[in-house]
Design a protein that fits this description.
The complex is a heterodimer of chains A (about 110) and B (about 110).
Chain A lengths: L3 E2 L4 E5 L4 E7 L6 E7 L6 E7 L4 E4 L2 E6 L4 E6 L8 E8 L8 E2 L3 E6 L1
Parallel strand pairs in A: 2-11
Antiparallel strand pairs in A: 1-3, 3-8, 4-5, 4-9, 6-7, 7-8, 9-10, 9-11
Chain B lengths: L4 E3 L2 E4 L5 E6 L6 E8 L3 E9 L2 E5 L6 E5 L5 E5 L8 E8 L7 E3 L3 E5 L1
Parallel strand pairs in B: 2-11
Antiparallel strand pairs in B: 1-3, 3-8, 4-5, 4-9, 5-6, 7-8, 9-10, 9-11
Classes of the chains: A mainly beta (about 110), B mainly beta (about 110).
């Protein structure tokens, strides 16, 4: 049972344009959501998070939107840069589960210059 | 502030052997979680320790075990290694008991031959 889904395995975007990465979840107990960026052979790097009491959180070029009724969140990167090329993971947690994170399968983002 | 440190970075073992991996969390962080990443399965949760107690456990066989020390450092052990245990093992540390950002180490690449 895949509780967190990233349905797009890959995404290609031109430098300077917006990148939109999507994530859906099924477990309504999830109350905290995070996005991570990962390069090969390295650990995931935390990017941005959002609590279920909010619908938007912004940090520089990165913005996360949460639609609880649709059980959907998205990460917007504006403007996209070639250095953003990496695998992006969506993750979710629930207070009852402590710090256990449930990850999506990841989306490979390629930013073309 | 030092990040999450995992040792060793790379390890080669033969089937049937056992292995111990180490993780030093960020100073002040009391929660340590372990994840296994394989190409086919993505990031899978192994277990979480908080204040030396195991709080959550994923769906892995009993050959996978762990512990946390009073200084929050953690070890995970895999006994009777199988070829399928070859993976990147990632440790993540968090400050509080839940709903906080998890910061990952660079991982230990385990190869079982």
């Amino acid at each position: 049972d895949q509780q967190v889904k990233q349905n797009s395995p890959s995404l290609s975007v031109q430098e300077g344009r917006i990148s939109i990465l999507n994530c859906d979840y099924t477990n309504s107990m999830f109350d905290y959501f995070l996005w991570y960026k990962k390069y090969p052979a390295e650990g995931p790097t935390f990017l941005i998070s959002i609590s279920s009491i909010k619908d938007k959180n912004e940090d520089g070029r990165f913005t996360v939107f949460l639609n609880k009724s649709a059980k959907h969140l998205s990460l917007h990167i504006v403007p996209s840069q070639p250095g953003d090329s990496a695998v992006y993971f969506c993750a979710a947690s629930a207070q009852e589960y402590g710090n256990k994170l449930v990850f999506g399968a990841g989306t490979i983002l390629r930013v073309k210059s | 502030k030092a990040g999450v440190t995992q040792t060793p970075r790379y390890l080669i073992k033969t089937r049937g052997q056992q292995v111990t991996l180490s993780c030093s969390p960020i100073s002040g962080h009391r929660s340590v979680s372990w994840y296994q990443q394989t190409p086919g399965q993505g990031l899978q949760f192994l277990f979480e320790y908080f204040s030396e107690t195991q709080r959550n456990k994923g769906n892995f066989p009993g050959r996978f075990s762990g512990r946390q020390f009073s200084n929050s450092r953690s070890e995970m052990n895999v006994s009777t290694l199988e070829l399928g245990d070859s993976a990147l093992y990632l440790c993540a540390s968090s400050l509080g008991p839940s709903g906080t950002e998890a910061f990952f180490g660079q991982g230990t690449r385990l190869t079982v031959v």
